[in-house]
Amino acid sequence: MGSKKRTSNLVAEANEVVGVEEENAVTNPIKKKMKKGKEKSGDRADGDVPTASIPSAGTNSIKSMERKKERKTVDKLRRHGASDADAQENPIMNLDSKVNETRGQMVASSGNALPAFHIDVFKDLASADASLREAAVERLVAELQEVHRAYEGNKELFESGLKLEAEKDDGLKDCAPSVRYAIRRLVRGTSSSRECARQGFALGLTLLICTISSIKVDSLLKLIVETLEVSASMKGEEVRDCLLGRLFSYGALARSGRLNGLCVSDPNTPVIKEFVSVLLTLSTKKSYLPEPAVTVILELAEKMQVEHVLNHILEAPGLSEWFNDAVGAGNPDALLLALKVREKVSVDSLNIGNILPYPFSPTRFFSSDHLTLLTQCWKNSTSCQPRVHSVWPVMVNMILPVMISQAEDVVSASNSLKKNRRNRKSSLPDEEIEKNVQNFCEVIIEGALLTSSHDRKHLALDVLLLLLPRLPASLVPVVLSYKLVQGLMDILSTKDSWLFKVAHHFIKGLSDWVGDDDVRRVAVIVALQKHSNGKFDFITKTKTVKALLADFKTESGCMLFIQNLMNLFVDEGNASDEPSDQSQTTDDNSEMGSLEDKDSGVMGISDSLKSWIVESMPSILKSLKLEPEEKFRVQKEILKFLAVQGLFSASLGSEVTSFELHEKFRWPKAATSSAICKMCIEQMQSLLASVQKMDVSPVLLQSSEFSDLGSFFMQFLSTLRSIPSVSLFRVLSDEDEEAYQKLQTMEASLYKQERRGGPEDFMYKYHALRYLLIQLLLQLLLHPAEFTEPVSEIIICCKKAFVLSDVLESGEDVSDSDVLWMDVLVDTLVSLLPQSSAPIRSAVEEVFRCFSYNVTHDGLLQMLRIIKRDLKPARHREADSDDEDDDDLLDIEEDEDDDTDEAQTVETGESEEQTDDSEAVVEVDKESPEESDESDDGMDDDAMFKMDTYLAQIFKEKKNQAGGETAQSQLVLFKLRVLSLLEIYLQTNPGRPHVLTIYSYLARAFVNPQTTEISEQLGQRIWGILNKKIVKSKEYPKGADVDNVLLVTLLERNLKLASRPFKKKKSSAADQSKKKQSAAWKRHKMLGSLAQDSTFWILKVIDASNFSEDERHSVFHAVKNLLTGYFCSKKCPIKSGFVREIFRRRPWIAHNLFEFLVDQCSSSKLEFRRVEALELVIEVLKSMAAKKMVKTQGIQKLNVLIKELVTNMPEKQSRQADVRKFCGKVFQTISANNLTKAFLKELMPEAQTACESHLGELFLNFKNGVQQQKVKDSA
């Protein structure tokens, strides 16, 4: 049992190391298709399976006749074994098992059984299942151990038995015959390429040599050479199999531990030197053999003592010459052996040659000179691709012997946030490691591999992936150098390149290495962008940097990222110590230092990289989920950086310290360009706009704990401006400076008013106005002399807002003078839209949202006139346009505006030579006397219409710069921005009467064909507002303030638009493309749909209004006109379903028009119209009462209609069915209301005859019902 347990342990130990030679060697040779003959020879290589399996010993009681009988039985089984099905699949193994059984029975019958060795165990050694191989090895070794012990006890019994093979002089005479046979077969099996034969047979050989000490090592070495000798007749696969078999056999011997035992027992044994020499000789046979051969030597060295390694391995014949030739030949395997042996013995040896420095130290080895000496070794290590050569993991272990923990990276990150990196002192080992890594990357990666072939570039990236797990974040800039990043960009920019997938794999490995470590993330992002000028993703067409930026999740990570970007922006790595304005005063030293800095001509980083820094710093806030206080601290740091670099510059040196803020501010030595300053200001505006959009409750606004970024920015701005040596990046004019001061003062006042508390709506108003003032202040610095006038007007409006809030709080009535300022506010807000940035527009929209309820009718008209405005006068339109009447369909203010349409248009037809931008021809809308009285009361003309002058100036400048198309596109953009304000108004005031005015203007703009011709986006936007915000909104205008006249006019116009037929343009087929026809038809359908939906909406508003009888007659008249056109024109696009829906929703219209509708059906000359309209009559009958029908002479009208229908019955059967259906519904309705008698009384005899003829039983049943009623009445 002890023997079996020891064997099991040996199997487990050997199984951990078995197969290394297979991995190192099999992947290298060129794989060729095997011929059938070679396959057969390969199958035989694991075997020479004998024809019978005979026990390894005989007995004295077996006589000669019994032996002959045994041989006959074996021969018989050999001849007839193939008849069985299982024997057909594996005849040799099946035969072995049968022979084993027969021999076992014979031995048992003899009465003296000895241990038997079953050779069928060999078949499982080649199994792909590792568990089967291990079990087979355990069984093999256990049986052979028992046989060998029996052999040692009585050798004569075994010698007199049947031999498995002929006697050979192999030096293994001390072993039992079965053991000798097993050794030979195991050696042969290592050369087999069948499944996992090499691994299984090598494992069995290892354990067998380990457990049976009678096996002589020198004899085994000779046996391996003789058994696996390569002859001249062998070719291709046979040669490879023999060489790999010898390699695996030598590996089994090295791992068995016998060689180490020889050194202990006999220190002067020559076997180990011979063994090493044989392996060196074998490594020269093929290019794929040196590395696994060296691996076998290293396996041996690991088991030996140091003195044995020095005296036996290093003294092996030919090893010294092999080391000496390694540098010139570029032998990476010799370098691997030298490094591992040096690591083992820790003693310098001259036998290793100059491949290692003498005396050896890691610093000397990784020196630039020595690494350059080994350049050819690095290049030649690509011979084992796609696998990485074993020398590289050894190099990684040497260069980074101890993995720097995550905690150390975090500590270094926190230190970098507190003080500059140049002031931090490193320990000596860290400096040595950094120097070694730098030399490794510069000489090997960049110098030897990246500048060479594709295979070597591939190797360089694989080696760096090996280096990453041990790499501290502080060394990322050394590894991700300029050459490496440039090489990655060159590869990734072309998808067809051979290395594209390799580079992608490296980037993925780099991202996986980063993981959730923010220190690594920052280092990788900075390195990639620094060496690509901020364009890594753009050039490589990947989202590497973007994905890394999106994964920041902690405040510390964001702060570290911001700090590194700040250092990169000011080019800290190249910066030198310079005077700091500690005292905020000027002295001679600081002035001289500043002049020296200016004269030194230090070049900073590129504007491209600076622009990326400015853009990416705020971008981390988009997906960042932090607590409000943590997020505010991150926002504050970003805002400070943008303000310092974008708004200010230092007049003395490049560093300034503020004692008030307890902080040092730095600037690049090279002056920051105006484009970068502008970008900083724009990013500040975007940051403030995003903060403003956050939902803030009134309670939070009053809270002392509330951190307001806008207020912090204004205070920070004031503090920096108070430093004498800090100035704005541009000098402001007197007017701009005055506006700047007013904005600061008013913002502070609004902030105090906001914190004081009050009504909720006023607190929101103050908050919105504050952020608009901050945006205007930045815009004033960005575009001086352009926003002085809007700033002044906004300041006035803010003061008026204070007055209004005081009046409301005191409970007094609001006077007209307190309300008129709203028109000025709206006018000013609209004037900011044409050329403003997105943050300005966002602030304008927020202010408009807060004050939307106070917007007056005149303010709305000012915005609506912009939507109606057109740069192209009506007289310039195409003469052949069939849509020339579209403008009049919804022109609600025809009488007052038609004569001034041309005057409203901004004249843009001046000659191109005209360059005087100060002159602009502008005509304003002339309003009716009533409107002018309302709008001009208390308002100055210049204040009222300055927006038109402002727009005209913009459009004229654009025209002079880039032609009329640019002016037109600017106008479209301006309209879209005004539509956003109107949409806000509709959201906050859906039920106010002003909605009708907005609808009328927007509908007219949408019907205007030029709207979609100029901009399809503008048309779609208007269409969306009309449908979603007005027509299909749940709330609608109600009450006495609704303009009834306007409602009736809108109804008439929409009914007219709905009934307008589609007209094709009168042009040749060549000119009229199918695409244009399709677009025209699509637009016609949209207009019809809008008109119908608008009709339903207007009728709903009319229902909710207090209409007089006269006004209701106007509604009836409009619907009558619609029905008249429907019955008289074949081209009328109105469907009966539209009118039926009107009658269903508004029954009072249907009741009033019942007689008119029946008359139209009776007198219609269009048969199909008459039949279609019958559904309308049925719809009216459903809701009419009997008394009203009699009172309105409905019976008489229906008689006439039925007479007309039955006397002029349609020819088409479908229409005849519709007529019968209608008559049946009429008869049913009349019967239900007990009006049958009156109906028949009015029906003429000839009509009754026609009814009986065409309606048949339908009319007879109706008529019989009257007679039955008479009988009941008489009874």
Automatic annotation (TrEMBL):
**Composition bias, kind Basic and acidic residues: at what positions?**
64-76
InterPro entries from the entry? ARM-type_fold, DNA_pol_V/MYBBP1A
Chain intervals with Acidic residues compositional bias? 880-922, 930-942
Which residue ranges traverse the bilayer?
A: none
Q: Does the keyword Nucleus apply?
A: yes
Subcellular location per UniProt equals: Nucleus
Pfam families for the chain: DNA_pol_phi
Q: GO terms for biological process?
A: regulation of DNA-templated transcription
Keyword Nucleus included in the entry's annotation: yes
Of the GO CC terms on this record, one is:
nucleolus
Q: Where is the composition biased (Polar residues)?
A: 53-63
Q: Which domain of life is it from?
A: Eukaryota
What protein name applies here?
DNA polymerase V
* Record key words, sorted: Nucleus
Give the chief site where it resides: nucleus
Region of interest called Disordered, as start-end residue ranges on this chain: 26-90, 574-602, 874-942
An annotated Gene Ontology molecular function? DNA binding
* Homology family: Belongs to the MYBBP1A family.
Task: Extract the PANTHER family matched here.
Answer: MYB-BINDING PROTEIN 1A, MYB-BINDING PROTEIN 1A FAMILY MEMBER
